[in-house]
């Protein structure tokens, strides 16, 4: 069945720079689309939670739906969806109770790998494993498990290290799985070896990681925003990158709600947004394209080079052409990928903490840090310690706090250069430092400049008495 609506082609000449979008209504009404991925067969696949179906759409827009048996309650059909090694597509069913895989060449033959009994934890998020099975986080026990791909059950389990439980997860090119743990940490778990935890401070403490992706250099990218609650709306948005032991944060400057990150054929990271799609380059340039009145609830690059997306409320699958019409025009003309429509990023910032002892810091009443900007702008630095360490030093910390601020300082740069910032410490902080033999301190530096979005980096050092 082929049904399409074309946007951006039938508009008046004055609006010719609108994105070129094709929309394809899903045949089953109110299907409840929840995930979309590129399949190994050059088609795009998606889940229909409310319709108990898996959907396939060809580059030409032909949609086929495959019924998935469901003995559970309404709105509990296929949900999570991931493409794995060996051409398998994996999905969860019946509110995560079942984990299933199939070969796109024969989608009617579905292989049930896990069918959790009553009382056993159900899968929350899903990612394929390098060994042919799947990783899953679970409701109820806040663990991450690795499943055998041949029905042998759970073969690895790692508990959450933090109180708020597991979030999104994705498999890296090296075979390790990355996930968010409590929203405050990224964790890397290999199939053999030692897990690694990466703190996400100074990211907004209300933010949760919504999606994780990777680029060919090995960098880990993630999107995050505040999901809201029954009393408040979702808000905010930032894109983060972890590479070479360094964390960079790129605040989006609005309620973009980034989700479903994917690495694009152009080398950039693309993502779905509240009202469209976004793109960020390796050097932090951000672009946004509106698809209004439609939403980019999830995205995937198809074999045809277009960015495919779904809008759950509209019950639509869409395909966006990656061309010069995609992004708004800038001063020099159309803002194609990497073009003048990109929102410039603030100057590159680097922060270091010179070797210094806690006794010296107390005597000078300030922590010295070095900030380097690649161009004119402003550098603001903040030194923090963990809330746990602050309590050990008898500093007053709120129950919900995850960090404690030692001091802050900022400096304006007329041109590129390096300057020493003195982060002044209060009398209470100086007194507390006298009780410490050693202390792990994180310094976060943010660069800003007019007409740009902020750029953030950080460094952690252990200071000794």
UniProtKB/TrEMBL annotation:
<keyword id="KW-0378">Hydrolase</keyword>
<protein>
    <submittedName>
        <fullName>Putative hydrolase</fullName>
    </submittedName>
</protein>
<keyword id="KW-0732">Signal</keyword>
<dbReference type="InterPro" id="IPR051344">
    <property type="entry name" value="Vgb"/>
</dbReference>
<dbReference type="Pfam" id="PF24684">
    <property type="entry name" value="Vgb_lyase"/>
</dbReference>
<feature type="signal peptide">
    <location>
        <begin position="1"/>
        <end position="17"/>
    </location>
</feature>
<dbReference type="GO" id="GO:0016787">
    <property type="term" value="F:hydrolase activity"/>
</dbReference>
<dbReference type="InterPro" id="IPR015943">
    <property type="entry name" value="WD40/YVTN_repeat-like_dom_sf"/>
</dbReference>
């Amino acid at each position: 069945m082929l049904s399409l609506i074309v946007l951006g082609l039938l508009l008046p000449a004055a609006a010719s720079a609108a994105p070129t979008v094709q929309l394809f209504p899903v045949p089953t009404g109110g299907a409840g689309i929840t995930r979309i991925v590129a399949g190994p067969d050059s088609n795009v696949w998606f889940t229909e939670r409310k319709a108990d179906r898996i959907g396939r759409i060809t580059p030409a827009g032909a949609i086929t739906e495959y019924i998935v048996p469901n003995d559970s309650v309404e709105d509990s059909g296929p949900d999570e969806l991931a493409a794995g090694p060996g051409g398998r597509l994996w999905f969860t069913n019946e509110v995560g109770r079942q984990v299933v895989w199939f070969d796109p060449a024969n989608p009617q033959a579905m292989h049930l790998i896990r069918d959790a009994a009553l009382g056993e934890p159900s899968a929350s998020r899903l990612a394929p494993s390098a060994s042919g099975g799947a990783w899953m986080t679970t409701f109820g026990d806040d663990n991450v498990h690795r499943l055998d791909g041949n029905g042998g059950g759970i073969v690895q389990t790692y508990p959450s290290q933090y109180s708020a439980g597991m979030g999104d997860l994705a498999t890296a090119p090296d075979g390790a799985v990355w996930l968010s743990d409590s929203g405050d940490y990224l964790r890397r778990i290999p199939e053999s070896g030692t897990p690694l935890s990466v703190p996400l401070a100074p990211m907004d403490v209300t933010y949760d990681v919504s999606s994780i992706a990777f680029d060919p250099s090995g960098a880990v990218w993630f999107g995050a925003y505040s999901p809201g609650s029954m009393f408040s709306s979702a808000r905010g948005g930032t894109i983060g990158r972890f590479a070479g032991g360094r964390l960079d944060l790129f605040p989006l400057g609005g309620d973009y709600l980034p989700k479903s990150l994917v690495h694009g054929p152009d080398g950039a990271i693309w993502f779905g947004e509240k009202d469209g799609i976004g793109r960020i380059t390796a050097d932090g340039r951000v672009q946004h394209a509106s698809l209004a009145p439609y939403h980019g609830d999830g995205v995937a690059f198809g074999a045809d080079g277009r960015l495919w997306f779904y809008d759950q409320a509209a019950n639509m699958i869409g395909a966006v052409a990656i061309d010069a019409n995609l992004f708004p025009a800038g001063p020099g003309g159309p803002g194609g990928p990497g073009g003048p429509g990109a929102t410039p990023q603030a100057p590159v910032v680097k922060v270091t903490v010179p070797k210094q002892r806690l006794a010296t810091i107390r005597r000078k009443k300030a922590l010295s840090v070095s900030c380097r900007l690649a161009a004119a702008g402003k550098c603001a630095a903040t030194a923090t310690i963990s809330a746990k360490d602050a309590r050990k030093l008898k500093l007053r910390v709120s129950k919900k706090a995850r960090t404690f601020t030692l001091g802050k300082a900022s400096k304006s740069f007329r041109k590129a250069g390096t300057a020493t910032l003195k982060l002044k410490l209060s009398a209470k902080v100086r007194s507390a430092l006298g009780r410490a033999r050693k202390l792990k301190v994180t310094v976060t530096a943010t660069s800003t400049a007019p007409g740009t979005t902020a750029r953030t980096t950080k460094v952690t050092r252990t200071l000794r008495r």
